[in-house]
Amino acid sequence: MKIIVVGCGRMGSGLARSLSLNGHAVTVVARDPAQLERLGAGFKGRMVTGVEFDRNVLLEAGIQRVDGLAAVTASDEVNVVTARMASQLFRVPRVVARLYDPRKAEIYQRLGVQTIDPTTWGIHRISELLGYSTLEPVLSLGAGGVDLLELEAPPLLVGRTVKDLEIPEEIRIVAISRGGKTFLPTLGTVFQGGDVVHLAVNGGALSRLHSLLGLP
Prior knowledge:
The protein is α/β, with parallel strands linked by helices and 216 residues long. It has two domains: 2-116, NAD(P)-binding Rossmann-like Domain (Rossmann fold, 3-Layer(aba) Sandwich); 120-213, Alpha-Beta Plaits (2-Layer Sandwich), CATH 3.30.70.1450. Helices cover 29% and strands 26% of the residues. It is built from seven helices and eleven strands. The chain has helices at 10-21, 55-60, 76-89, 105-110, 118-130, 162-165, 206-213, and strands at residues 2-6, 25-30, 46-49, 68-71, 94-98, 115-116, 136-141, 146-152, 171-178, 181-183, 196-202. The strands form two sheets. The protein has a six-stranded parallel β-sheet with strand order 3-2-1-4-5-6, with helices on both faces. The chain has a five-stranded antiparallel β-sheet with strand order 7-8-11-9-10, with helices on one face. The longest helix is centred in the middle third of the chain and has 14 residues, at 76-89. The protein is elongated. The termini are far apart. The mean pLDDT is 85.
């Protein structure tokens, strides 16, 4: 994939190096040329210097031909403006903006900007770890609005069907891993002992999920 990373702080440089090592063609855009030094001599991607949301800068970075863009500067406003330009003006298929102020998440989501809030995600993850939850968070979407979880099927679930656990707009079974294979279940699929269940859960339904599974 061809990806633009806008911003080259600790997150931007780390993200760019990770994407590059995974075989993606990465272009990094930074206002301060000194920040690009964070990438190191081994970075194989392109580097562009300029104002992050300047149209000509983004064109120089090849935005018309990329598959994704991540706006991860130190400014929420810069990230959102850049992300909106990428998605609405240049029709980039996948766009994500880093968000520092979680209070703005709802506003930006109304504008059609997919955001990642490290603070909210971190709070949620630390809370899960300290609580010794048997539900393992894999990913949080929309600043914690929806969580992707996985767990080994508890005794209360074995013998029941997917339909028994799913709740519209709250809990959905995404996949089941069984015997070394992962598959998409139907509503009639019966849970077996040893199953690893992958779920998408509304952030406000976690306590209800614990109750349904008989977990503390």
